[in-house]
Amino acid sequence: MSKIFLSVSRLVIIFTLTLCSTQINAQVPAISKKYSEQKVYELIMRYNTSNKYDGANAAVSKAFGRDFPNAYDIEWETNDEIYEVEFEIRNRDFKAYYDKEGNLIIYKQDITVAELPANVNKAIKALYPKYRLDDVDKIVSANQTYYKVELEYGEHETTVYVDSKGKQLDNVPLY
């Protein structure tokens, strides 16, 4: 009887872990292909240097609810051209940017160093062999996924952006 109980317990644990990971991974919203990478860069840079106020219009709010249905602790800012929303899902920080029509243009999420793809980790260690990886964000746009990695070495800190192939990127919007 105890062997059956242990087997059932294991199955319940496996099912629960599978369900939880599926819920995290299933939440991959579609990014609008309306804008080129250069245009996204320009929009975000313009947003970062503009005056902002709180709020989201109905189209943006509806799109956000569809894209990130499990979000909580939601905070909006806008400059009427771009809407930035910071939120959490399963205790992970996210930030997403929408245009005024509700098109998701880019989002980022915190990930652990262990979740960084091995080839990206290897490339960063080759570029910065003495540095320790401190904080990692995964950034998803319509055309690419890349990583913002904060590094530390003693009193020195630096931030690098690396694409999914391990190539260091320049000209990336500041998130």
What's this, in brief?
With 175 residues, this protein is of the alpha+beta class. Helices cover 33% and strands 34% of the residues. It is built from four helices and eight strands; from the N terminus they run αααββββαββββ.
How would you sum up the global shape? globular
The largest sheet, given as strand count, sense and whether it forms a barrel, is:
8 strands, antiparallel
Mean pLDDT: 85
Percent helix among the residues?
A: 25-40%
Please give the count of helices: 4
The helix/strand series, from N terminus to C terminus, equals HHHEEEEHEEEE
Q: Could you tell me the strand content as a percent range?
A: 25-35%
* Structural class based on helices, strands and sheet pairing: alpha+beta
From the N-terminal CA to the C-terminal CA, the straight-line distance is 56 Å
Order of the strands making up the biggest sheet = 1-2-3-4-5-6-7-8
Total strand count, please?
Answer: 8
Low-pLDDT parts are 5-26
Rounded to the nearest angstrom, the radius of gyration is 19 Å
List keywords for this structure.
175 residues; alpha+beta; eight-stranded antiparallel sheet; 4 helices; 33% helix
Question: How do the helices and strands line up, and which of them pair or pack?
Answer:
Blueprint (H helix, E strand, L loop, with lengths): L1 H25 L10 H12 L9 H10 L4 E7 L3 E8 L2 E8 L4 E8 L6 H10 L4 E10 L3 E9 L2 E8 L4 E2 L6
Antiparallel strand pairs: 1-2, 2-3, 3-4, 4-5, 5-6, 6-7, 7-8
